[in-house]
Amino acid sequence: FDFRDKSAVITGGGSGIGKAAAALFAQAGARVAIIGRDLSDLEKAAEEMSFGAEHKVYCVAADVSDATEMADAIQAIGGKFGGIDIVVANAGINGVWAPLEELEVDEWNTTIGINLRGTFLTVKLALPFLKRRGGSVIVISSINGTRVFSNSGATAYSCSKAAQVAFCKMTALELAKDKIRVNAVCPGAIETNIDDSTERRGLQDLHLPVEFPDGDVPLTGGGPGRPEQVAQLIAFLASDASAHITGTEIYIEGAQSLL
Ligand code: NAD
């Protein structure tokens, strides 16, 4: 990939899939900005992916669910780079996985707020910059948006991920005239630390009628995919190689969802 004349913004770019994507863009010559909640975490990650002072990855602290913080962040990045060409709405949490009766309203709101409102804010606020010369938006959804696994109880998460796909389709249609493409990437299990903060409650009470396979990936013979593999797909969707692709979702899951 060659992104030498491009500027990219990646939310949640300090770890996992976002970090792998940011590193790939930086390596391919793009000006890269990463957004996350903790500036020192971002700077640590940026240190590992920057190539000299000229290609220093720019770090901006913001909570993607906070409209004011995100407006300031995107404004700072768009101003510094003189435009934005690539937006990767990647920040997300698993949140609380629990039976519906036990899922608190606040817990629902937190998951939807970060995964869905965060996507909305990221893309909406970047639009004035994207519109200057067209661009590519890549939203990181999940196979969970369209497929139920044994990680049942992930109702809020799955709804947020399904809605991200709908968001891509609606906005792809609306923004086609501006030469802005919007696509969703739907990963299966990928080796990151996202699960560390998942809170699972009362799932044994669900008494599901069948056992769903969990985490078995036919293509690897078991284990999860790697963030770098997802980054390759993100880069493809950001590049001119995918110039005619918009409003679609692409799965990257090693046949996991065919089980
Ligand atoms: P991760 O935890 O490494 O990455 C998520 C990033 O988002 C972190 O850097 C985190 O700090 C950031 N973040 C969380 N809440 C935020 C907020 N309010 N404001 C700003 N930043 C915030 O995990 P990951 O697996 O790399 O996740 C990236 C995306 O991939 C998520 O949207 C996730 O739903 C999706 N995904 C992951 C998998 C998987 O198996 N790892 C599968 C399908 C989809």
Structural class: alpha/beta
**CATH homology superfamily name:** NAD(P)-binding Rossmann-like Domain
Radius of gyration from the alpha-carbon trace, in angstroms? 18 Å
Global outline: globular
Q: What is the annotated CATH architecture?
A: 3-Layer(aba) Sandwich
Count of all domains? 1
Q: What letter string, H or E per element, gives the SSE order?
A: EHEHEHEEHEHEEHE
| Distance between the first and last residues' Cα | 33 Å
Spatially, the strands of the biggest sheet line up as: 3-2-1-4-6-7-9
SS field, number of helical segments: 6
Characteristic key phrases:
37% helix, 7-stranded parallel β-sheet, 259 residues, binds nicotinamide-adenine-dinucleotide, Rossmann fold
Q: How would you concisely characterize the structure shown here?
A:
With 259 residues, the chain is an alpha/beta fold.
